[in-house]
Write a structure and sequence with these properties.
The chain is α+β, with helices and mostly antiparallel strands and 91 residues long. It is 12% helix and 19% strand. It has a domain at 8-22 and 31-76. The strands form two sheets. Strands 1-2-3 form a three-stranded antiparallel beta sheet, with helices on one face. A two-stranded antiparallel sheet has the order 4-5.
Length: 91
Amino acid sequence: MNCYKSNQNTIMFLKRIGSDPHENGAKTAACQGCPDIWQLEDGDFAVIGIDITAVATPKLPLTAGCGPDERIVRLPRNLLVNAKRDIPDRL
């Protein structure tokens, strides 16, 4: 059961939340991209991170779940802490 369904066909990236991971000439390991957080046009957020679903799902607390159309991603702590200033305090 999904708690939320979004229209996958209308995703528009509005703005980055936090610092650009390539700021100050930072290089990406293996040239594949970097973890990132983006605000979408509809106000939701998109997260780019390392997919840890397979190893994390069996270890989820009883009150958490990961549906077949969901993924658990790992974000470096500094990414989320640095993004805090850009995350709204209210809905």
